[in-house]
Amino acid sequence: MSTFKEAGHLFRFAGLFVLAFLVFLVVRHFVVPKSFGEYGHYRGAAIGEIAARPVHFAGHAACESCHTDIADTKHAGKHAGVNCEACHGPLAKHADDPTAMTPVKPDTAVLCVRCHAASAARPKDFPQIAADHSNGLACETCHNPHSPGMDATPAAPAKKTASAGGAK
Amino acid sequence: MSGVEGYMYPNEITLYWSVLIVLYPYITGLVAGAFILASLERVFRVEAVKPTYRLALLTALAFLLVAPLPLVLHLGHPFRSPEMYFTPHSTSAMAMFGYVYLWYLMAVLVLEIWLDYRREIVLLSQSSKGLLRLVYRIMTLGSSNISERSLAIDERVGWIVTLIGIPSAFLLHGYVGFIFGSIKANPWWSSPLMPVVFIFSAMVSGIAGVMLLYMALTKLRKQKIDMRCVDAIAMYMFYIYVIDFSLEMLDLVHRIYEANESFNSLNFMVHTKLYFSQIILQILLGTVTPLVLLFLTQVVKLPEIARKSMYVISGSLALIGVLAMRWNVVIGGQLFSKSFLGYTTYKMGLVTREGLLVAIFLTILPLFFLWALVKLLPPWPETSAHQASAGD
Amino acid sequence: MNLSRRQMLILLPAAAVAWKSVLAGTPESSPNYTMSEHWWGMLIDIPKCIGCGNCVRACQAENDVPDGHFRTWVERYHRSDWEMTREGDVTPNPLIVPEVISPDGGKEGFPAATDESGKYFFVPKMCNHCADSPCTQVCPVGATFISPDGVVLVDQTYCLGCAYCVQACPYGCRYIHPEKQVADKCTLCYHRITKGLTTACCEACPTGARQLVDLKDPKDPIHEFLKTHSVQVLKPQMATGAKVFYNDLDGSVR
């Protein structure tokens, strides 16, 4: 019994530990996010937060739901597998409200060569053009970007916007 | 791409683990090594090193208090670090840090120091004045019992704490080695030897550090250095260094012999980017030279003055060599591409949050803490509590 | 375009309604998406990749990827032939030391290749959304994880920015976001795939070299593809359970 009295200071030290541990447990209860552990060792609510991020590319289905003519032209030609926004860039804003944002027509001088400039590195069966292919003429002079094969009818090279009322 | 030779994956070009991550294992290594030196006396009853017992404990504490700082300064969100306490991920070696650190600080180091100094603390709480008196009184935890029996209990419990403290020290520093050694993505790090090499080089650095501090502080206090003590410390340092060197050479020889996928890339890196820090600093100056010097002191009967200078040189070179080893592991592991096709450069900032100035500051800071601890809890055997209070 | 005003008046509201439902919020609130029904991956068809860099640009536009960091990137490999320069003097094994470039991640494409000898090919890379991912294993707090539908994600409000996951990824797909100071990487456009869209990189790829796959969907073409093609993952020796499958991957790819 006297040992306990003589070791009183040790019990005080241990007591500090116990107290700190209890405080820790209480704080932990309030601090750890509620959804933590819902699916695994992480905050379950994070999944929903990540899924709610804004979309910038509308996806070709959205484009084709309005621009049916162009979709038809494209599906018949060599660019059938090239999605609209692959060339026209992210257009979710336009799909959301077509009048609010008018897409800018891409500059073919920059755009087309990204894929088609000749390079020994590209697959051999992929259509490639040398630098002097058109002697400076714009690509759309001879090629319809939506159906670029030489057998297809080239588009009339006028500036076109898809704004409401393109009644022809 | 500045500083890149060959091919690096684009996201690999910047180093994310900076000189601060080099410092952290160095500091905890000093802690572990200093503690092992203290345990030599307490558990293994090596009487000769007793003069450094208390100093070793205080040194360990001073460095341990600084240890979390390089980590916190490195984090992108330091204020989220309590998450490691609240939701530690059981598969992550790094998650251990919070609990191992706290355990080692409170249940080992602070407890052991408190038990060893309790008599002096109680006496100082009664004899000192002002703010200091309050500090000592808090440290007594309200108990002024320093009877023979209670001190005998302290002695016994302290022995058990030191005994538990040895594997705890290995855990405190070994888990850092495991943090690196368990990364299969990085062949420079991935090795079961990593925790063991870390622990043994830590012991070398800690023992060298305490030895140098003892010699320097004793000189400053114009006292006579206990050569029997220093000779014993140097002997232990020598043998542990031999083991450490053997382990590092084993790793090296194994790599060269197996010459697996990563070998060519790593070999080239060691001979170019890491030439100075690995070949010159770590191996030649930091390991071979101290080993040769210490070997001479062990086999040749040399006069005291020669032994002293050789110990100082070996100890200093060992400290540099172990720091170089940490550098080579941490920085070296990020200089080469995981494609094994290229290398990048570490651009250490000067005044940035993770720059050189901060690193230097963090290396010196523990010495300030040590100074304060030595003033608060004098480790010198000839200084009695009575003398200490008279000076306040 | 040749739509009559009448057609426009009908189509526009219909499209708007369709688009709004596509933009529905969280997977929990979206009645069409149940996590347990999906197990996402990707198929990359190497012979189809032309190195245009569309995917890299699209990913950056979709996900606000900071310059100099990459959630996806394209590498160009040149595996040259063995060349005997002098007698007995052999050049390094081109299978082990290919020439690889990735200028700005391939974002603006690649300079024209001129050497007609040897083999060139492009390898798009991204997070492999590993089923046994070493990166989620090492996270000290549980800020990065694999979702129940197989996508490795980062909880950026919980991440400490310690960069341990960046070190642990064998593929180099992670980075620390320079402004947010947290770990960042490809999310497989989780915000898109949970709404029935495909990833931005797949949407932008002009040749169909990148295809999102749902391994749990019996109707997904991946199942037929796996039966009829030779398919690899990157660094199979790491046993990460990578779910990005490469068709016709050369042995020199690192």
Order of helices and strands of chain B: EHHHHHHHHHHHHHEHH
The helix fraction of chain B, in percent, is: over 70%
The computed structural class of chain B is: mainly alpha
Low-confidence stretches of chain B: 384-392
- Biggest sheet details of chain A: none
Residue runs with pLDDT of under 50 for 5 or more positions of chain A: 157-168
Count the DSSP helices of chain B. Answer: 15
Cα shape of chain B: globular
Straight-line distance between termini of chain A: 106 Å
Shape of chain A: elongated
Report Rg of chain A: 32 Å
Strand content of chain A: under 5%
Following the backbone from N to C, one meets helices and strands of chain A in this order, namely HHHHHHHH
Radius of gyration of chain B: 22 Å
Question: Which helices and strands, and how do they pair?
Answer:
The complex is a heterotrimer of chains A (168), B (392) and C (254).
Chain A: H1 2-6, H2 8-31, H3 45-51, H4 60-66, H5 68-76, H6 84-88, H7 92-96, H8 108-116
Chain B: E1 5-6, H1 19-42, H2 53-66, H3 68-74, H4 83-86, H5 96-127, H6 130-139, H7 148-181, H8 194-220, H9 227-258, H10 263-271, H11 275-299, H12 304-330, H13 332-335, E2 342-343, H14 356-376, H15 385-390
Antiparallel strand pairs in B: 1-2
Chain C: H1 5-22, E1 40-45, H2 54-63, E2 72-79, E3 84-86, E4 89-90, E5 99-101, E6 119-126, H3 134-138, E7 144-146, E8 152-154, H4 164-168, E9 175-176, E10 183-184, H5 190-193, H6 200-204, E11 210-214, H7 222-228, E12 231-232, E13 244-247
Parallel strand pairs in C: 1-13
Antiparallel strand pairs in C: 1-11, 2-5, 2-6, 3-4, 7-8, 9-10, 12-13
Question: If you had to describe this structure to a student in words, what would you say it looks like?
Answer:
The complex is a heterotrimer of chains A (168), B (392) and C (254). By secondary structure, chain A is mainly α. Chain A has 2 domains: 2-51, no CATH class; 60-141, no CATH class. Chain A has 8 helices and no strands. Chain A is elongated. By secondary structure, chain B is mostly helical. Helix content of chain B is 70%, strand content 1%. In chain B, α1 crosses α8, α2 (53-66) packs across α8 (194-220) and α5 crosses α6 (130-139). Chain B is globular and about 70 Å long. The model of chain B is unreliable at 384-392 (pLDDT under 50). Chain C is of the alpha+beta class. Chain C has 7 helices and 13 strands. Chain C has helices at residues 5-22, 54-63, 134-138, 164-168, 190-193, 200-204, 222-228, and strands at 40-45, 72-79, 84-86, 89-90, 99-101, 119-126, 144-146, 152-154, 175-176, 183-184, 210-214, 231-232, 244-247. Chains in contact: A-B, A-C, B-C. At the A-C interface, α3, α4 and α5 of A face α1, α2, β6, β7 and α5 of C.
